[in-house]
Design a protein that fits this description.
The chain is α+β, with helices and mostly antiparallel strands. The chain is 36% helix and 17% strand.
Length: 605
């Protein structure tokens, strides 16, 4: 109809949002070009919306990670970027100092099918990595593998130089390398891994699954400060006395925790492949030794606790028992009857054997079993030697007499330490461990029956103190720290399975402070030689005892044990020695010689 007009549409209720929406069109798109532009505009708006939402999500995720600091999330982010996650947990000492850790590295490999000129590639790689074996490199570049390994654990400089070559087919893979910051200091404890981070010695081997599956650091009982002191003093003693080897430890009697465990010679676990078998051998746990007169601690404890011997009993050391065609001899013969305290303090082999005759071989064997001296020690590393002892069937009078002063049975240092700690700990068993304990709970099961009575333990502690103040270990005394202990010097068995005339193992096992036993210390020197300062003597009182004194003087303050005054020491000594009785204590003269566990032919010196 002429004059009719299309009514106007009502205005749109949709708000105008710049960049996203536009007002509705009032006309149709007439041309294909206009339609294409409109389609493109809609698509761009959609893409912009998607990117905006993505950035919002990423920003929120980043804010969450920043605020929460979740280690697992950061670990996943490292994996997403191609960086190898640190999959093996750290090993630390008791104070959190790192003893073993894993660092991210890069390894280079070859995709053989992508390498255009293998010979030229080999030439260029050898110029940067001259330590590569040319034959193996040639095989890797001419093989048929997707990623033939060329070199593990490149240094940053090597990675930069190889990458700069731009050789097609040469690829990099994230890797990790096990590092031991303490170097030689903890080699026999921590151990080491192979190139693929599989534990093959020490804690690395025994706790391999734990280190692989639990990212939390594994805390050991070791105190690297104490470890450093013990290692230094043992090394010095080895040098001073030209010894073949040495071993030592410090143990917390309350918990059984080993604060130090040293074996010399040692090695650098960062280069374990360069170490000799002698360096890798752990003398503190693998090595078993006849410990000499230190075993008189067990012999005397059994004699007193069984009731077959009393402190006032006298034994005529002028009449030595015989072992086969050999007579038991004392290093410094007193030539008179002696009581129990004198036999212990003067380290009389004859007196110890005479005491053993009262309780017999069956009781001795059973007691050694209760002390944990007849079975392989349970410890958290695989390198543990089993004791060398006669079978129960062969444990006869001869075995009994020899074992009374530390011959005929060989144990390792940690095994000896655990048994002596049990004796001075009121007879409550102490179990050595290399793992840090949590809380203040004492070691072992307090419900476990004591091996000896508290009274016997007190008597042994008192006599061990006399050994230091009046006996064979005067050089072990440290002012203010009330050291107590027992020397042990034993003939060494040679390659012909006979005792050598001029070879020995000298050791000292001590406790401090003995009035309230807290720490046990031990030092062993394998075949030390006397020098001018020792007047030619190489026995334990001249070699191992002063080594322990230097160790105690240094670690005492570190372990929060301030030295006592002279007055306090005198008062503590009086109380400590009281169970022995005044007559016994006063009757023990100051020793001038040194106990030596030996079996000599009749008439020999």
């Amino acid at each position: 109809m002429k004059g009719w007009q299309r009514p106007e549409k009502p205005p749109s209720r949709q708000p105008v949002l710049p960049g996203l929406f536009s007002p509705p069109k009032t006309r149709r798109l007439a041309t294909p070009g206009e339609q294409a532009l409109e389609t493109a505009r809609v698509r761009l708006v959609f893409v912009a919306l998607v990117f905006t939402l993505a950035w919002v999500v990423l920003a929120g995720r980043l804010a969450y990670l920043t605020l929460s600091g979740s280690p697992s999330d950061f670990q996943n982010d490292r994996t997403a970027t191609g960086e190898a996650p640190a999959r093996r947990a750290d090993i630390t000492d008791r104070n959190g100092n790192i003893m073993a850790t894993s660092l991210p590295t890069v390894s280079v490999c070859a995709d053989d099918k992508s390498i255009i000129n293998p010979d030229e590639a080999a030439k260029e790689l050898l110029a940067i990595l001259p330590d590569l074996d040319p034959t193996r490199l040639n095989d890797a570049l001419h093989g048929d593998k997707y990623c033939a390994m060329i070199k593990r654990h490149l240094t940053p400089h090597q990675y930069y130089e190889v990458n700069k070559l731009g050789i097609a087919g040469i690829e990099f893979r994230p890797d990790e390398h096990r590092l031991y910051p303490a170097d030689n200091l903890s080699a026999h404890i921590v151990g080491y891994t192979d190139i693929d981070d599989n534990g093959i010695a020490g804690i690395e081997k025994s706790m391999d699954a734990r280190l692989e599956n639990d990212p939390d650091p594994l805390a050991l009982s070791i105190d690297l400060r104490v470890q450093g002191i013990v290692r230094h003093e043992l090394a010095q003693a080895m040098s001073d006395f030209n010894a073949q080897a040495a071993a030592g430890l410090v143990m917390d009697i309350h918990t059984g925790e080993l604060l130090s465990l040293v074996s010399l010679p040692d090695f650098d676990p960062n280069h374990a492949g360069d170490a000799t078998p002698d360096q890798r051998f752990n003398r503190a746990t693998q090595g078993v030794y006849e410990m000499g007169s230190t075993f008189k601690i067990f012999n005397t404890a059994l004699a007193l606790d069984s009731g077959f011997v009393h402190m006032g009993d006298m034994f005529d050391t002028r009449k030595p028992p015989e072992i086969g065609h050999h007579k038991i001899r004392d290093f410094e013969e007193e030539g008179r009857p002696m009581n129990v305290a004198e036999i212990f303090v003067h380290s009389s082999n004859i007196g110890s054997a005479l005491m053993a005759e009262r309780f017999g071989p069956e009781r001795q064997r059973a007691f050694f079993e209760r002390m944990g001296l007849t079975e392989k020690l349970s410890l958290e590393i695989p390198e543990v030697g089993a004791p060398l002892i006669p079978s129960a069937h062969d444990w006869n009078e001869t075995t009994m007499l020899a074992a009374a002063f530390g011959h005929g049975i060989a144990v390792n240092a940690v095994q000896l330490a655990g048994a002596v700690a049990t004796i001075v700990n009121n007879g409550i068993p102490v179990h050595p461990t290399l793992l840090k304990k949590t809380g203040d709970a004492d070691n072992g099961d307090q419900g476990t029956a004591a091996v000896i009575s508290p009274r016997t333990s007190a008597l042994i502690r008192a006599m061990m103190r006399l050994v230091v103040t009046r006996g064979t270990a005067k050089f072990a005394d440290v002012p203010g720290y009330m050291v107590a202990g027992k020397t042990g010097t034993a003939d060494k068995i040679g390659a012909n399975h006979h005792y050598e005339d001029n070879a020995r193992v000298s050791s000292f096992i001590g406790v401090f402070p003995v009035n309230a036993p807290r720490y046990l210390v031990f030092a062993l020197l394998d075949d030390p030689k006397g020098n001018a300062k020792t007047h030619g003597y190489a026995t334990a009182g001249w070699t191992a005892a002063p080594t322990i004194a230097r160790i105690v003087a240094q670690i005492g303050p570190l372990l929060d044990l301030p030295p006592l005054t002279k007055a306090d020491v005198a008062a503590a000594d009086e109380k400590l020695l009281q169970p022995l009785g005044n007559l016994t204590v006063d009757g023990v003269p100051v020793e001038e010689g040194d106990g030596y566990a030996s079996v000599k032919p009749d008439g020999a010196e």
